[in-house]
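Sharing a chain and its predicted structure for anyone who wants a worked example. Both blocks are below, sequence first, tokens second.
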Amino acid sequence: MDLFARYPAINKPAGVVYWLKHSKDAKNVDWVVILDADMIIRGPIVPWELGAVKGRPVAAYYGYLIGCDNILAQLHTKHPEMCDKVGGLLAFHIDDLRVFAPLWLSKTEEVREDRAHWATNITGDIYGKGWISEMYGYFFGAAEVGLRHKINDNLMIYPGYVPREGIEPILLHYGLPFSVGNWSFNKLAHHDDGIVYKCNQLFPEPPYPREVKQLELDPNQRRGLFLSIECINIINEGLLLQHAANSCPKPPWSKYLSFLKSKAYAELTKPKYASPATLQMMEDIKEEHVDDGAGKRHPKIHTVFSTECTTYFDWQTVGFMHSFCQSGQPGNITRLLSCSDEDLRKYKGHDLAPTHIVPSMSRHPLTGDCYLIGCDNELAKLHTSHPEACDKVGGVIIMHIDDLRKFALLWLHKTEEVRADRAHYARNITNLGGFVRCMATPLAQQRYNLFQSQILPQQHFQLMVTFGSLWEVLSYCYLLATCFFTCAALQRARTNISMNTLAPYLSVVFVWLSIISYDDLF
């Protein structure tokens, strides 16, 4: 499976924006803790105890995000000097999140679209595929609104890393491969693993604590290994409980199952509390603590995390939710579940967590993902002499009028040419079938009807083609804009309407008919 054919990470900011607008929980909360599904919570995350105040969220340090220090920040924010390398753990006052979240989403789209700067030496992304665009969207958006963070490099740790002496991490983030002796775990190796729905199947058991003690004599190195086995043991324990909830037969006795039910294991996994050293921020200047919960005995905390309708995220959800329940984390929790309508109908994991379903943007055309694949195959070679220059773009188009004058006629010509090429309508060449289903919604029809009835006089649409298989050729915005050019050209020929008269309408097409707007999605 090509992990880069889609971009599920965009659903994190998209889900947060949607949740803020549509969830009743978001209207009755003071603080929001945003985490990732591939995390294990070891202890309570109380924002004001971590040092968060209104206007200064707390976040974990992501030092590898070098785009803060180079041309990437200069291109994508007016305030590169305010760029904080943060992510993973985010503890926000709800008022700050409401102001910031839409910009987080728009900046994610912007960075994801900037393929010219996906290189590892610019982003720090080891895959070099724009995979961490959402992270850059986060702190570029924060820089735009002047939101600075209290940065902590102790609260979260990757299994396989060794904690600093005296530090008690309260979050494990298993985003990277890790190993203990000859045993290892890599979440990407289980991308299509339906382990949640396979009775009594667990991930390979890690070494026991006694074996770890024999393996490593250095106390601090040993602590790191203990964190690694704790991570996978928590996930496996959660899977056992989920299998029981799925009415699976009781698993046969094994040494490993006996260990997971032992008092020794319960002692090892009891909630951890951040030590004073753990709470120390990276900044040198200590700010006076302001209790934004003043006047409220118990400010309300809500934890959110983002997933998709896939088995890959389901087993992560099981581990995450089990750790949440064990950790003593105050407040409620919501899974932001992003799915297409088709995937949602087939989805089996509705009961894995308290859930708020949000529209999926994984195939959003502004990100250029899993959509206009004709740029990469024979379609481009057939219809342009420069297939290497084919950009997967659409939706919002901002163009100088001189460029548009040169380009518009060729746009129309190429549309007619591709439309006539029925031999290459197949989805494996254009990949528009799924997108068409997405856009063939009441919203799309309403937008078309509104455009037809209010934006232009009815006669301007007398020659407009009807909805049909033309959707299988171009994206929604390009289609309507192209149809407009066709009608405008014909009407101009018949009525001598000047381009100056038509210009305002053209502006409306390019901006108002953007394929995905925040008001539409959210």
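Comments welcome. Residues 7-286+294-357 form one domain.
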